[in-house]
């Protein structure tokens, strides 16, 4: 088995970016979910509640300290990263302290999405955004995508970007990653302890380029994955904690270690 893709999202909910190699740290891929989007009520939002976010392409240059948002109409807004004072943000049942981005980016995003939105820097104590250090790395096999395609009767491949996973695995059997839960797997020189399955929500029904709902992902998963024992419903792929930091490149071996 080998690493088939590496991806990350500079802004949670926006377009994924691809990498040929990365360092995998205890906090995950550097720059992954470095920023998040918050609504007028102070709640984190993603592509499930604001589909147009998926069509926005973010570029984060951490070295010079800028964030650029490219919109589907060809417009682009770039700004230096300047942070305001910490505020409470509601995040998956938690209340976390996060700092808002000052400048024009939030206004541009609000105008595009048609609702009041603000960009925040992700809380430093919450890497991986969704699950913290426990979910710093996410893994999905190509074979699982193929199995979903068969169940759905789809003509073409199921776009892996729908599932917003960090690492894709070539050469596995369908849902072989299920067997890794509570075990360890080496990706390149990094070692990950797989903690649990990733449960799926409606964001996976949206096209990974446009954000338009165009695939009955949850319906198809329920047809054959609903009874799989998991902490989160409709499991598809797994997440884990990084035990040993290291370098991961496309083509590197993927080796379960029990």
Show the helix and strand layout:
Elements: E1 2-8, E2 17-19, E3 21-24, E4 35-39, E5 44-45, E6 57-61, E7 66-70, E8 76-80, E9 87-91, E10 94-100, H1 105-113, E11 117-121, E12 137-141, H2 142-152, E13 167-170, E14 184-187, E15 190-199, H3 217-225, E16 235-244, E17 246-249, E18 254-256
Parallel strand pairs: 12-13
Antiparallel strand pairs: 1-2, 1-13, 3-17, 4-5, 4-11, 6-7, 7-8, 9-10, 10-11, 12-16, 14-15, 14-18, 15-16
Concise synopsis of the structure shown:
The protein is mainly β. It has 3 helices and 18 strands.
Please give the share of residues in helix.
Answer: 10-25%
Total E-strand runs: 18
Overall mean confidence score, pLDDT: 94
Kindly report the spatial arrangement of strands forming the biggest sheet. 2-1-13-12-16-15-14-18
CATH superfamily annotation of the largest domain = PK beta-barrel domain-like
Q: In CATH terms, what is the fold-level topology of the largest domain? A: M1 Pyruvate Kinase, Domain 3
How large, in whole angstroms, is the Cα Rg?
18 Å
- How can the largest sheet be summarized? 8 strands, mixed
Poorly predicted spans: none
> How would you spell out the order of helices and strands?
EEEEEEEEEEHEEHEEEHEEE
């Amino acid at each position: 088995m080998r690493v088939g893709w590496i991806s990350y999202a500079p802004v949670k909910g926006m377009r994924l970016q691809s990498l040929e190699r990365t360092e995998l740290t205890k906090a995950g891929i550097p720059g992954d979910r470095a920023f998040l989007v918050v609504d007028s009520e102070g709640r984190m939002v993603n592509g499930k509640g604001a589909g147009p976010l998926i069509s926005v392409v973010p570029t984060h240059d951490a070295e010079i300290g800028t964030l650029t948002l490219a919109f589907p109409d060809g417009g682009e807004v770039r700004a230096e990263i300047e942070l305001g004072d910490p505020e409470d943000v509601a995040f998956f049942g938690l209340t976390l302290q996060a700092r808002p981005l000052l400048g024009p980016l939030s206004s541009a995003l609000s105008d595009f999405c048609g609702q009041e939105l603000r960009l925040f820097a992700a809380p430093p104590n919450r890497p991986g955004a969704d699950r913290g250090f426990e979910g710093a790395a996410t893994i999905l096999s190509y074979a699982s995508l193929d199995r979903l395609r068969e169940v759905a009767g789809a003509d073409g491949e199921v776009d892996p970007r729908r599932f917003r996973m960090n690492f894709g695995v070539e050469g596995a059997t369908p849902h072989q990653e299920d067997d890794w839960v509570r075990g360890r797997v080496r990706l390149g020189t990094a070692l990950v302890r797989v903690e649990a399955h990733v449960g799926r929500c409606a964001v996976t029904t949206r096209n990974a380029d446009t954000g338009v709902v165009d695939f009955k992902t949850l319906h198809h998963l329920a047809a054959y994955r609903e009874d799989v024992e998991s902490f989160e419903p409709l499991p598809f792929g797994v997440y884990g904690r990084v035990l040993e930091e290291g370098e991961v490149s496309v083509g590197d071996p993927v080796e379960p270690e029990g």
